[in-house]
Amino acid sequence: MTTAPRERGWTAVRAGAWAIAVALPLAFLLAFFAYPVAAILARGVVTDGHLDLGGFAEVLADPRTWRVVGHTLGQAALGTGLAVGLAIPGAYVLYRCTFPGRALVRGLVAVPFVLPSVVVGVAFRSLLAAGGPLGALGWDRSLVAVVAALVFFNYGLVVRVVGSVWERLDPRAEQAARTLGASPARAFATVTLPALAPAIASAAALVFLFCATAFAVVLVLGGQRYATVEVEIWLQTTQFLDLRTAAVLSVLQLVIVAATLVASGRLRTRRERSLALVEARRATAPLRLGARACAVDRVAVGVTALTVAALALPLGSMLVRSLRQDGRWTLEHYVALGSTGDRALTVTAWDAAAISLRTATDATVLALAVGVVLALVLSRRPRRRTGRRALGALDAAVMLPLGVSAVTVGFGFLIALDRPPLDLRSSLVLIPIAQAMVSIPLVVRTVLPVLRAIDPRLRQAAAMLGAGPGRVLWTVELPMALRSIGLAAGFAFAVSLGEFGATSFLARPDRPTLPVVIYRLLGRPGEGNYGMALAASVLLAVVVALVMTTAERLRPPHAGEW
């Protein structure tokens, strides 16, 4: 007699818990993402309380606008094409083959994706500027430098997305083609490449998105000459104080981002379906590279070795130049981090580093709190079609902060969060919130595949043994997802530590983060300031690399592409 009421009680408790789990993260996203972005949209189309599209007409009639849009799309297309073309051989060598030191090379290739963009800009400047190892090529402040840096950032992402599928492909289809007389190249083109196409297309869409919204790299390496929409928004806001033009440009960027996210979402769905198919099969052991490797394997190894060496070159140049002054080896640039430079800073670089660590810690806690709850919600499998559609819409909404630029988010914070009940422009929590918004999609994409891979029969067995929903969560789901949560924490911390786009708008002069300090040092003349920028960049790169290599050890078998 008491079983039915108890069951109804558990059903009500479960429904209420999931309602809260959906409502709280959505409220956070609405308050600190949707509202600021909507404020930007309103600033572009509303004047004195009335709809006014004159700003669009003025901005769209300006030839500079289309030049900036052309730079954005052109640089993104070049960066995407080169990153994908170079990464396919790398995915084969690092995920389909085995050799001594493969795990170490995988980890090194993954580091550039989470390196602070300011650090990458400084690294390429140290390589290409006058006096650098490649300074004679004249590529400083050029399109070549910008595109090379974009490839540097995104090569590891493509390798991971494509490689995670490639290592699970059933090799028997390609072996059958070879048995029927196809050459290795033809077997790859006709059998393997079509199977990899969803993963390659998904990776290309993501890389295009990241290239189109790149900020600090373009600002440091290209300047106003090769300004993208992202850089132009920053210039119009901080230098020209033209908020209306910046708002219109933000709307244009949102259109580009929305189109790319739609394409990326569809391609990711196709990739996940193909991955589900190949995971159902038992893949053979990885191929061993050796002296008897075929010509295709030797080409893939050669391309991968040259690419990995090229990835290490900018960072190596930055490290060497940070230790050199007046033709001699010295640690003076690192010692100078304890000072404010040649009147370039208001605080020391060490103080800024401490601020960065505290801010990144706060941002990571926020990102995990919101992202893990969202991942738990998205991992459910509703029986009704309406429920599945609602989760699909929520999944797409969660990805939006990843596509919308950090500059747009920071700009939106400035113009929206200046009145009660969200008057936060003078609050110290604003920067951690902005950095958490950038990290939340990464947390979700890291934890969600692991939660979806949990056999639902485990939950059912725990429930049949009398465990309530909360106990199932604590004893079944979270323990199995713990490694992925640790990996997500590493990603969130590394990304927050190096975030520059939103922070450049929001950081107070007396509380800058280390990326902001590096950019200020680069903007000041003098060899001492430049040497300090190099030393601070090395420091930041080392911390991020240590965080990521530690987090990579926690990567579970079913982790996402991040």
TrEMBL record:
**Span of domain ABC transmembrane type-1:** 69-262, 353-551
What superkingdom does the record give? Bacteria
Alphabetically sorted, this entry's keywords are:
Cell inner membrane, Cell membrane, Membrane, Transmembrane, Transmembrane helix, Transport
Q: Which PROSITE patterns match?
A: ABC_TM1
GO BP annotation list: transmembrane transport
Query: What would be one Gene Ontology cellular-component term for the protein?
Result: plasma membrane
Topology relative to the membrane, per the entry? Multi-pass membrane protein
The subcellular localization recorded is: Cell inner membrane; Cell membrane
Where are the membrane-spanning stretches? 12-35, 73-95, 107-130, 142-162, 196-223, 243-263, 299-320, 360-378, 390-417, 429-451, 530-548
Which family would the database say this protein is a member of? Belongs to the binding-protein-dependent transport system permease family.
Name this protein carries in UniProt:
Iron ABC transporter permease
Q: Which organism is it from?
A: Miniimonas arenae
